[in-house]
Structure formats: C-alpha cells, structure tokens
Amino acid sequence: MMGFYFNRLVEILPLFLKGLWMTTQIAFISLGVCTVLGFSLGILRSGKSVILKWIIGVYVSFVRGTPFVVQVFIIFFIFPEWGLQLEAFSAALLAMAIMGSAFICEIVAGGIASISKGQWEAAESSGLSRIQQMRLVILPQAMRVILPPLVGQFVLLIKDTSVVSVIGVMDLTRVGWITVIRIPEGLMVFSLVGILYFVISYPLILLSNYLERKMAV
Amino acid sequence: MDGNMLADFNFRIIMEYLPLFLHGLGATFLISTASIFLALVVGVIACACRISQIKYLKYPAIAYIELIRSTPLLVQIYFFYFGLPTLGVRIPEIQTGILALMLNSGAYIAEIIRAGISSVDEGHIEAGISSGLNYVQRMRFIILPQALGATIPPLLGQAIVLVKDSALLSLISVAELTRCGQVLTSERFMPTEAFLTVAFFYMCIYFVLKSLADWSQKKLIFREVY
Q: Which residue ranges does UniProt annotate as crossing the membrane (chain A) (predicted)?
C-alpha cells in the first residue's frame, strides 16, 4: 500500500512544486513589503511626534496581541463587509504585510533606541538635518543590532505564510491539505511539505545564527 | 453597510454567543497551560541532551530542535492530525493539538534555556570548580539560579507565542476561542462581531502576560544593577 501511495505522491509532485512556488512568491514579496513598511514605521516610532508614536503603538499591540490566523480571518471576512473585496492572494499579502511590518517595526525601533544620545547630539551639532542624522549616523550603527533579529523574523514570516492557506491560497500547506484527502498518508504527505519548507527556511536560520555570532561582541 | 464600519455592530449577538465565547476562552486557557507545562518538560530534556557531550543524545536533540524551528507549526499540526491515524493512533483533536504545541514550544524553550545557561559568566563556573564543587553542585548553586533569572522573561514571551499559536487548533476543529469565531460566522454570518470579539479576548490575555513579562524583566534588571 505504501508503495502505491508513494507512486501517486510522485505523480502529483508538480502540484507540490507549484505550491512551493506560491509559498516562495508570497514569502518574498511580503518580506520586501514588510521590510520597507517596518523600517518606515520603526523610524517614525523613534521620532518626536507623540500622536504618531501612539497610533503605531496601538497598531503594533494589536498585531502582537492577536493570533495571525485571526488577523487573516479579519482581513478575509470583515474587510469585504467594510467594502474592501480582496481575492485570496491579495488578502494573504495584505495580512502578511500588516503582521510582518509590526514585528519589524519593533525590531527597528529597538535598534534605534540602542544608539546612545551622544551620537544624536554629535550628529546634530555637526549640522546634519534630522533625516541625515538618521541615514548617516544612527541607522548604520543600529543595523548591527537590527540585522540578526531581522533575519530571524524573516524565518518566522516565511513559516507564517502557511497560515494563509486557510483562505484558499494554493500554497505548500494547502497543497498538502488537499493531497492528504486524496492520498490518506498523512505522515508521508506532510513530511514532504515539511521538507520543502525546510529547504526555504533553513538557509535563513543558518544566516541568522551566523549574523548573531558575528554581530555579538 | 459601506462606510459606517462599526455603526451596525451587533452587541446582542455577542451577548447571545457569550457562553460559547467564554467556553472557548476556557479551552484556550486550558490548552495553553497544559501545553506550556508539557513543553517546559520537553524543553528541559531537549536542552540537557543538546548540551551534553554524549553524541547519541546531542545530535538527535539538534535534529529535533532544527527541524521544529524550520517548519511551520501548522504543518506540524497537520502532520500529527493526518499522520497519527495512518499509524493506527486515534486520539481526540484536542490532544493531537496539545501534542503538536508541546513539541513545537519544547524546541524553542530548549534554545531559551540553553541561551540562559550560556549567559552565565565563565568566571563564576571556574570559581565554582576551584572551590571544589562538583558538576551537580555547580549546576545547582551557580549555573541554574543565574540561568533561571535570564530565562524567565523569554519563557513568558514564549507563553504569549503559545497562546496565540493555539488559535491554529481551530483548523483541526478544536473548540477553542478562534473556533467560536468561525462558528458564529458560519451560523449567523456575522464575521465582524465574531472575529473582533475573538481578537478582544486574545488582547486581554496578551496584556496580562505582557505586563507579567515586562515586570519580571524589570525586576531582574533591577536585581542585577543592585
């Protein structure tokens, strides 16, 4: 029986590769979007505007305080009620962008906060504008603190893409789910799915470990 | 309904479904508590194997930790949910879920404890050796008391992650908090009421645990400065 199912699994391997492609697409598009949004929010959060800080704080708390799957449901089920109809793929990307940017915002804000006051003052007395201070003095130093957890967060984000399968995006997890209904070999099917996720995320884990070792000291 | 987002928010339906939500909240609480305690046991054992010199313990522990960390929890849940029956093991969904959460968090906890242990200053250990303490005594009097201090805040952080992760059990139809939102959505088609209520309850849990984590962090830093 096992052999029979194994052959069928090989038969539908192209479906898994399609799922892998979908997962890779969602992962890398959202990583890009999250990084840009997260850095912008993190920099704004380190700024002087109290109202802006407060708004970002509420947003971050909401994202950190609720499960990602609930956020996905909110976007997929509630946004249409508010007049924003989204197809599964864009809803998935939106959910990933909202969730990921909040976590990255925290990492960036933490990194910026780790830079001593003296650096800001020195930059200011050198006659740099606020934007120049951030770009030329603060961020380059903060990157040492930001980079290791940022790459770690990337790994988490890639894994979190599996959750968007619940709204019908044909990603790896979804492919596994529909396969297991036709081929009742759960261990085999989800081992394969797991291996494919491993292939994408393990190199990033190694990178994150390496950065952590390199940047510590 | 366009435009006036929350104007039509139906509190009556929430009151009607409140017993269901409270039931779900209780289930989430029970699942999370059970999983975190089991995960602590798994984590301590995995960490002990991970840092031991015996390679038959060390490498399996590394494989376990790395495999868990590089695959999504949802895939792990499905692995057990669809996989166990093919092995002839039939356990209720809720136990399958707790098993998956336990093994998942266990790997992260093992790493948290390992980081805590490695944060103990080498000099303290050397001092212990030269005071004539043996390995067990050094563990008990020098390493663990200090490591424990460094691990409590991240362990509370892991507890927060676990509570949120338990929401994924709704996908294998465990009747926890998120599942209540799905039920209300499918029975009455009121997703706004359903999922905002669910989100509200999770936020409450989050703030309690978060303040606990912040408090313990402050307390530890304070003690260190002292």
A: 20-44, 56-79, 91-115, 136-158, 187-211
Instruction: State the pLDDT at residue B30.
Output: 96
**In tens digits, what is the pLDDT along chain A, a chain of 217 residues?**
667 777 887 888 899 999 999 999 999 999 999 999 999 999 999 888 899 999 999 999 999 999 999 999 999 998 888 888 889 999 999 999 999 999 999 999 999 999 988 888 888 888 888 888 888 889 999 999 999 999 999 999 999 999 999 999 999 999 999 999 888 888 999 999 999 999 999 999 899 888 888 887 5
Kindly report the backbone phi and psi dihedral angles of residue B116, in degrees, each rounded to the nearest multiple of 5, phi listed first: -60, -45
d(Cα B22, Cα A93) in Å, to the nearest integer? 32
Domain spans, chain A: 1-215
Q: Which fold has domain A1-215?
A: MetI-like fold (1.10.3720)
Which CATH number covers residue B73? 1.10.3720.10
| Closest-CA distance of chain A to residue B179, Å | 10
In a domain, B28, yes or no: yes
Question: Are the C-beta atoms of B177 and B198 separated by less than 8 Å?
Answer: yes
Q: Which residues of A touch B100 (CB under 8 A)?
A: none
* Interface check B6 vs A, CB under 8 A: no
In a domain, B114, yes or no: yes
Domain tally, chain B: 1
φ/ψ (deg, to 5) at B175: -80, 65
Look at A184 and B206 and tell me if their CB atoms are within 8 Å.
Answer: no
pLDDT tens-digit profile of B41-79?
Answer: 999 999 999 998 999 999 999 999 999 999 999 999 999
Q: CB–CB of A205/B107 below 8 Å?
A: no
List all residues 6 or more positions away from B220 whose beta carbon is below 8 Å from its beta carbon. Answer: B149, B150, B152, B153
pTM of the complete model: 0.91
CA dist., res. B168 & res. A41, Å (int): 28
Is the residue at B3 inside a domain?
A: no
Q: Tally the C-alpha atoms within 13 A of residue A111's C-alpha that lie toward its C-beta.
A: 27
Q: Residue B86 carries which DSSP code?
A: H
- C-alpha–C-alpha distance, residues B62 and B43, integer Å: 12
- Interface A–B counts its CB contacts (< 8 A) at 136
Do the domain assignments include residue B116?
yes
